[in-house]
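Researcher: Good morning. I'm working through a list of sequences from a screen, and I'd like to move beyond sequence-only analysis. For each chain I'm collecting a predicted structure so we can compare shapes side by side. This is the next one on the list. No need for commentary yet; just the structure.
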Amino acid sequence: MGNEEMVKLGTLLNYWIEHNKEHSQEFKEWAEKMRDPDEAEIAAGMLKAAGEMDKATEYLQEARGKLAEKEN
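Model: Good morning. Structure tokens for this chain:
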């Protein structure tokens, strides 16, 4: 991969990480609003999605770290 593509990938990784964090936070906020016991399954699903989004963010952060190592 060329230098220009590596720079673009770094930019994309930063964007994806921040984007995922925003979505995860939104999922958690909406799950918090679901206080009715009849909505517990909905809230649980949203919290699961937030957890998976957080895992994806960790993987992207690892990739960004590896990319930074490669650049040095």
